[in-house]
Amino acid sequence: MILVDTCILVDVTADHEAWRDWSLAQLATWSTRGPLLVNPIIFAEWCTDFATFEQAELARMQFGLEWRELPRSSLFVASQAHRQYRRRGGVRPMVLPDFLIGAHAAVERLPLLTRDRRRFETYFNGLEIVCPESN
User: Fold this and answer.
1) By three-state DSSP, how is residue 60 classified?
2) CA–CA separation, 6 and 13 (whole Å)
3) Which residues, 6+ apart, have CB-to-CB distance to 104 below 8 Å?
């Protein structure tokens, strides 16, 4: 079981030449280990690649992505990560989507498949991050 970050899905659906093959291989590998999970934040970010909800939902099902709601406790953890970000000089006033995604993975102890190791590693100690550098 693994939470799949938006960038991995965009690599495949937007045919990102530099990352498509790596992302497809990771999805294939992890799908043999258990469910591939997305949450509402990931799905909302990914939907920009589709013209209709039906297309996005069909793609989600074709990828075998299972829906997972964010636990309420992860929302608090995300807010604390955002507080750290602001104290370190971050300028965005609202909680960043990556903090919601990272907090979800951290609270549920899910590995996170992503290409953006830095932000997740900085704000979520102990989070298992699967990224190109870890292979």
Assistant:
1) helix
2) 11
3) 3, 39, 41, 68, 70, 71, 74, 78, 110
pLDDT at 47: 96
Name the 3-class secondary structure at 93: coil
d(CA 25, CA 45): 22
What does the CA dihedral 25, 31, 34, 40 come to, rounded to 10 degrees?
Answer: 100
Whether the predicted pLDDT of 26 surpasses 90:
yes
Distance between CA atoms of 41 and 45, rounded to whole angstroms? 6
User: What is the model's pTM?
Assistant: 0.94
pLDDT bracket for residue 105 (50, 70, 90): very high
Q: So what's the pLDDT on residue 90?
A: 92
Query: Is pLDDT of 135 > 70?
Result: no
List the CATH number of the domain containing 69: 3.40.50.1010
Domain extent at residue 66: 2-134
Distance CA(122)–CA(116), nearest Å, equals 11
Count structural domains, the chain: 1
